[in-house]
Design goal:
With 116 residues, the protein is of the alpha+beta class. The chain contains 2 helices and 5 strands. The model has no long low-confidence stretch (mean pLDDT 89).
């Protein structure tokens, strides 16, 4: 089971990928296109061309984990855009994205003072 924690570095690849790619091909993509070490422990998110599925790749110091979520209906409407090859997400944004939500939507702050 993968756990997304606030301390994790999370990168979402901007360009969609061919979902026939496995661990080795996605790790190579991390090195070449995202210019990041796939062995760093960073959580990498990739979207299919059809926007109906997301793959997660992460190294846990013993080996790689790969997970995939494919929607039964609809598409992932939100995905990061930009000139850079990847966008950094916070843990709560990644969780919203995996739930087919919009991480840019206004939400409660990540941290707020409880008492004055």
């Amino acid at each position: 089971m993968l756990q997304i924690t606030p301390q994790m570095r999370i990168l979402a690849a901007i360009e969609p990928v061919d979902f026939r790619k496995g661990i080795d091909a996605l790790a190579q993509l991390c090195k070449q296109k995202l210019e990041t070490d796939p062995f760093s422990g960073c959580l990498f998110l990739f979207r299919s061309r059809s926007a109906t599925a997301i793959k997660i790749l992460v190294y846990d110091s013993q080996g790689f984990w790969i997970a995939q979520k494919r929607l039964s209906k609809g598409r992932f409407k939100w995905w990061p855009t930009g000139e850079e090859p990847a966008k950094t997400l916070q843990a709560h944004q990644a969780q919203l994205l995996l739930a087919a939500g919009n991480p840019d939507a206004e939400a409660a702050p990540v941290w707020r003072r409880v008492s004055a």
